[in-house]
Recover the amino acids of this structure.
């Protein structure tokens, strides 16, 4: 089958062996798969991704099984934001049937243990024509939802989890710094939860427009205005939650410096570099900083339901699509924030 392979720090379109489902697994045809910012980070900083993921997992303490990590000297087929059509069932399955359109959390249980789909040498992700998924983790796409929108379940669930972790409630206000796909997913879920004042900030005019479409009440260009001043104009009184969704050095410190007393700051942007903050800013204002990652199974399932029932409107973040041959070029295009927010991969069957 055809796939875009991470090999030697580059993306190469090549033929790779077709996967075969083991017991408890199903074979699916990739219908749509989003390109994620973490995929861009992995291509550029794969060694750091592996090192920090190993360190985080080795800390333990949560009872979760240790995943098998990718080895960068071997091929990796990325793609973890996917929707697929079931083609074949392995033994001991029964949750889904051939022909079902499904999404899944991007992990698979196999004879060798738990593997992350899209960050594995053994299990190809959605940048390939076919994938193997765990039958028990597959969720059928409901309500006739199209595969393109269903593929947004995974990135939207990241936003849902960040909002849940923030403990924001009606009567609070929110500032979202950064309107890439993660920031947009946060905005969409804040709107779903009835937050009356949502301020978004991004340098990109296109992404500011998307933020408005997905639910932001005020949008600002940081080169011309500040998010905190926009909040003061629009509200200025309600308890505030700031979502840092940029993930570059200096952003967390900037969020702390702008935050009023008792603000909650949620860090959902992934910064791959060393960063510096000044704790005194947090101490004198008694700030609360929450780091977040991914989602839990219930949040993933609820996100799919909310999208399918029209409660969570995220389709607007799709700004382009490519086939497998177009993936390397799409990675380049996504480096320009004025060009795209979310590009989907739609492999030829």
């Amino acid at each position: 089958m055809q796939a875009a392979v991470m090999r030697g720090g580059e993306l190469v379109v090549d033929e790779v062996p077709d996967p075969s489902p083991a017991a408890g697994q199903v074979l699916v045809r990739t219908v749509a798969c989003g390109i994620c910012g973490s995929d861009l980070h992995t291509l550029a900083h794969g060694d750091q991704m592996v090192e920090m993921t190993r360190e985080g997992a080795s800390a333990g303490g949560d009872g979760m099984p240790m995943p098998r990590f990718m080895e960068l000297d071997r091929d990796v087929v990325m793609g973890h934001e996917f929707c697929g059509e079931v083609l074949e069932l392995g033994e001991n399955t029964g949750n889904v049937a051939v022909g079902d359109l499904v999404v899944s959390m991007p992990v698979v249980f196999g004879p060798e243990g738990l593997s992350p789909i899209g960050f594995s040498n053994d299990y190809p992700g959605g940048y390939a024509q076919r994938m193997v998924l765990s039958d028990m983790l597959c969720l059928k796409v409901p309500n006739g939802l199209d595969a393109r929108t269903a593929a947004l379940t995974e990135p939207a669930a990241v936003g849902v989890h960040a909002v849940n972790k923030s403990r924001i409630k009606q009567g609070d206000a929110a500032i979202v710094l950064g309107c890439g796909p993660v920031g947009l997913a946060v905005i969409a879920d804040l709107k779903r939860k009835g937050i009356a004042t949502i301020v978004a900030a991004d340098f990109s005019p296109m992404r500011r427009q998307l933020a408005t479409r997905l639910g932001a009440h005020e949008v600002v260009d940081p080169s011309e205005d500040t998010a905190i001043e926009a909040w003061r104009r629009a509200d200025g009184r309600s308890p505030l939650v700031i979502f840092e969704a940029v993930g570059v050095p200096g952003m967390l410190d900037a969020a702390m410096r702008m935050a009023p007393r008792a603000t909650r700051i949620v860090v959902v942007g992934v910064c791959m570099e060393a960063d510096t903050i000044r704790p005194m800013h947090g101490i004198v204002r008694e700030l609360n900083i929450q780091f977040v990652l991914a989602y839990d199974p219930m949040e993933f399932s609820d996100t799919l339901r909310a999208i399918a029932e029209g409660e969570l409107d995220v389709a607007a973040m799709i700004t382009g699509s490519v086939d497998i041959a177009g993936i390397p070029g799409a990675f380049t295009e996504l480096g320009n924030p004025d060009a795209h927010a979310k590009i989907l991969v739609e492999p030829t069957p």
Q: What stands out?
A: Residues 37-58 form the longest helix (22 residues).
